[in-house]
Design goal:
The protein has six helices and no strands. With 161 residues, the chain is mostly helical. The two termini are 17 Å apart.
């Protein structure tokens, strides 16, 4: 129980650093890609439609910053947690499983982020500049609730000492 509590605290600390990395990246990517209006292909355009993400936002320049910032920040977190939090010697192939789960989770949370930004900017125009940050924080909380048990009990079991 004590070890799990310590791991939970360490995971939270790593998650805080992941959040900082993600928030920096999402804002930089959002700024860099805001003029990229190329439409999304197939299924992505059905999921990230204008009804969900707002008029003029169903494009690569709007969706990709959320996805990229999330992938990069969470990969960093996975490897830090592997070494520092769980002291795991889990096989490297678990990183592939993590990436697959992460990509699915990120697609869902990217949709959530896009939808939240749309709601925030539509209902609270003064919050437009903070909308990507607030949306990323909400999606990060959902990811935390899924990733901690996945990493602790499935992918990064602590090595035997």
């Amino acid at each position: 129980m004590k070890k799990s509590l310590i791991q939970f605290i360490k995971f939270n600390l790593v998650s805080a650093s992941v959040t900082i990395v993600q928030l920096l990246l999402v804002n930089v990517f959002f700024w860099l890609m805001k003029d990229w209006k190329a439409p999304l292909p197939g299924l992505l355009s059905a999921v990230f439609n204008e009804a969900a993400v707002g008029a003029g936002n169903a494009n690569w320049g709007y969706v990709l910053p959320f996805f990229l910032s999330n992938v990069l920040a969470n990969l960093y977190g996975f490897f830090v947690n592997r070494k520092v939090t769980f002291h795991s010697d889990a096989p490297k192939r678990n990183a592939v499983v993590f990436l697959i789960v992460l990509c699915i989770l990120i697609l869902v949370s990217t949709w959530i982020q896009g939808s939240l930004v749309h709601v925030i900017t539509e209902r609270f125009p003064a919050g437009t500049k903070l909308a990507p940050t607030l949306a990323a924080l909400a999606a990060g909380t959902i990811q935390f609730l899924i990733l901690f048990p996945l990493e602790k009990y499935v992918l990064l079991k602590e090595r035997e000492r």
